[in-house]
Every structure is written in structure tokens, then in C-alpha cells.
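Hi R.,

Here's the input for the FE2/S2 (inorganic) cluster complex you asked about:
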Amino acid sequence: MKFIIERFDGKKSYEQTYTVEKKDIEALTLLSVLLLIKQTQDVTLNFTASCRCAICGACGVRVNGHAYIACDSKMTELFEEYGDTDAFRIAPLANFKVISDLVVDWEPAMENLRKIKPALVAKSEFSEKEGCRQNQEEFDRIIKQWDCILCGCCASECNKLTADHTDYMEPFVFTHAWRAANDSRSKDPMIHVKPSVTNGLWNCVHCQECANRCPKHISSADDIAGLRALAMRKGLNSGVGPAHAKSFYTDLVEDSGRLNEIRLALRTEGVSTVMRAGTAVTLMSAGKMNPLEVFGGHTIEGHKDLVKMIKAAQAANKE
Ligand code: FES
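And here is the predicted structure with FE2/S2 (inorganic) cluster in place:
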């Protein structure tokens, strides 16, 4: 079977096809297949790997467009996922600059990670003698985010980064910001929340691809939502993002329980939203928006229960 590998020699991109016997690779991981190709066919093929046991995060690549850690991807599972194919396309992670073949430049992502100060800045009441103690419950709260191995799969899948990476950071950066901000030993969560806000926290487009493809089953999308809630609770309420979130709440809880796109846009972007009047007319003529309900419509069935659920979630969140 064929492995079509996207290569880059520092100047030009090209693809190269390597052929291997299917029976020889069925019991291997994807990383073992790449090593086999390097050892038996082409020593110039470049990729990175270290631990070979899903810990170091060095072996992220794309298979047929999706991100995987190669050492933790069994060929049997890939055959199951993609059917009985006779070719796989292997490419470097997306949304990273390629250095050589499957090797990408991590420095810009590491620079982003530094911005949110991922290391613990401990409360001053911890003594040198006692250290920074944490009980099991406090540790359990952040244990999932500690599983992040910085493999870059979430960043590779991120639609926001693909569209425009200049005002956003890799999803795993927000996961580490959430983890640091929610560490019971932390002196001040805002040390991590503020740089998240100023570096694109509200620009996530909610595609959920980061959560879908994380090999450790971490949801950076949830962590981004958690950071947003924390930012708003701590008074970082200005800007389009918080206004948009508040407008959802107003529509669902204080109004009819029905999202009203016109009021949503007005509450979010103010009068500048008039520029979108044409879009509103198009939506109305396509039957996507009821002009009779622009300034308020009938309350949805079960609205009282919806409000009860939201209030209960809010109360639980405060505990
Ligand atoms: S080689 Fe370390 S995670 Fe794959």
C-alpha cells in the first residue's frame, strides 16, 4: 500500500509516495511505519518523535487531513477509521510553519504559551516549610488539563487559526491558562486570564474541532468557555465577546427563550450593526427570521423550566 507523504526541503514543497506491504505494517503504529520507511527506503525523510508512548507530544502529524500522534495511532485503528484503503496521505500538522517534511516550528506556539504564564504563581500564605499543598478534590479539578502533552493536534484542527492566526492562540494554550487559573494554589487567576483575553480568548469560533481531535480527550473549547466565564465574573466585561454572551443570556432567560438575531446583533455590536440590515432582509425573505418577532416574540414552551435549569447551573457553578 502507499504512503503519500507531503515533504518540504526548505525551499519547495512536493509529495513523495512510498510503497510498503500491507501485511508488514498491520501490527505497527503509524510512527513505526514512518521509521520503517526511513530505515529501509529513504533516510532523508524527516519527522520528530521521542518517547514513543504518547507522553512527549513530539510525533503529531496529519493523516488524511486529520491530526494524530503517530506513536499512539495503531495502523489497525486507521484501517478501521478509513476503511480498507490502499493509500494514506501523511502531512505535517496544519497551522504551524513547516521546517522540513513533517517537522514543524513550535517556537511561535511556545511564545504564546509563555504569554499566559503557565507556571504556578503561588499564594503568599504558603510557607517554605509546608510547600504548596493541595487536597485531592482541588487536584482532581485540574487533572484533565494536566494530561495535555503539547502535541499540537488541537492547533492543527483549529478552524480559527486556519482562517486568521494573527489574533488568536493555539487551543492548548487556553487549556493551560484554564488549568493555571483554576489551580487552588494560584495567587491570582487573573495572572492567566488577562493575557488570554488580550490574546484572542473571545475569538474562538466554537467549531469544537480541538475537542474532537485531542488524543487525550481534553476539550480546549470547554476550557475557553470556562476562561470566558471567569473573565466576566472578574469584571472583564467590555468588548463584543462579553456583549454577545450577555445577549444570549438575556434572550434565553430574561426574554422569551428564543434567540433573536436582530436584537443579538444590536446588543453585541450596537448601532454599527445597521450595516448588516441587508443580511437581515435576506434572512427574512428566506424565511429564516420572522419579522413579526424582531422586537420580541412569544415565549417558548417550557421557558420556566429552562430558566430553572440555567439558574441551577449558575448556583452550582458558584459552589
Ligand atoms: S513520540 Fe512522544 S508522544 Fe509520540
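One thing worth noting: The beta strands are 2-8, 13-19, 60-63, 66-69, 87-91, 98-100, 103-104.

Cheers,
M.
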